[in-house]
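Our consortium's second objective concerns turning raw sequence data into structural hypotheses that experimental partners can test. To show how far this objective has progressed, the report includes one record in full. It was chosen at random from the queue rather than selected for favorable results. The single chain below, 423 residues long, was entered without modification.
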Amino acid sequence: MAATRTQLSQAYPLGSRLDADGRLQLGGCDAVELAREFGTPAYIVVEEDLRERARAFVDAFRARTSDFDVLFASKAFPCTAVLRVLAEEGIACDVASGGELALALRGGFDPERIYLHGNAKSEDELRLARASGVGHVVLDNADEIERLEAVVTSSPPTTPQRVLLRVTPDVRGETHAAISTGQADSKFGFSMAGAPAAIERVRGSAALELVGLHLHIGSQIFELDPFRRAIEAIAPLGDFGVVNLGGGLGVAYTAGPEPPRIADYVAAKVDTVERVLGSGKRILDEPGRALVANSTVTLYTVQSVKRNVSTWVAVDGGMSDNLRPMLYGSVYEAQIADRFGGGTPARLAGKHCESGDVIVCEAELADPRVGDVIVTPATGAYGHAMANNYNGVPRPPVVFVHDGDARVVVRRETYEDLFARDA
């Protein structure tokens, strides 16, 4: 009898399943065959998962309000093919650098629906935004106000640049400190005490048009109450037509607790805006991780199995393709792609010259052997984005799968790529 989707954890892409032989199927493609065809490590993206989650966000907002926009926080997966899919689904875009802006434009986003973020935007990045026709700049600090004014006034057209002011509401969600941004002592945004003066400063500028406020309290948050409290916190700052609520909805990385439903997350935010800030507001939201994390798995090949105090299963990737476990202790699960189920407690280790290069500290693998294909789900957010060349390891390809077809959308790096910029 064929295995079904229910045997996989919620971390896997929508539509994933185990076939009658217990082999993982992704977007209608066999995971082991994908590893053979494209090599490992490799990021495998189920395109339909991206589209379904984008539609779920848009539909959830449309059910609660008529004036909204959903922005992809592109830092989560800055890949042209991913951006193109989300643009096709009607999503807008949030960028935090000149490079992300260039990718967003290449991915087909309307510049008017691109929002430029960042706590240390350079003059060059602001000039690129103006030249590209970026619709909104999110102001983070007083220095940036002056810098953007100078950019606007020094080059035509001198029409005002629409801006939002990022404020820090002094609300912390239950998440890791490295991805918590709403607390008072944050590198992001204006403090609640400093925001009123900044608002008046921008309102007095002929070069800038203040249209609203922005807030973001952090990422990978499962509780809805912090989102409500953050909106309540900014109410004393005044009446604005636009409010950008950031993102933050958590996702499933393992078979652990389920995150809130998209519809419940949206309802909590929209209803609080209408209750606290009043009706008629244009509501923006910036999901990143929640749009892309579960669309993707990473495939590895086992290179060695070593037993001392622990069983160490070493693969051909690691902190060069998934830095998050080493950076802030993120927890993933792992399985053998054609032999799901536990049996052997193991540490899934990477190939890099760091003792901390461990992808999964407490894996349960079915009799792991050299040559096995290992799958770790939920790597769509910040896997490709944070990939690096530590130990001179070329970065993996990104492979889209859909209805049984597979195509490379980002090729694997070569050794020649590693020294392409060398003098």
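The partners drew two points from this record. The chain has two domains: 5-46+293-418, 48-291. Residues 399 and 408 are 4 Å apart (CA to CA). Both points have been shared with the crystallography group to help prioritize constructs.
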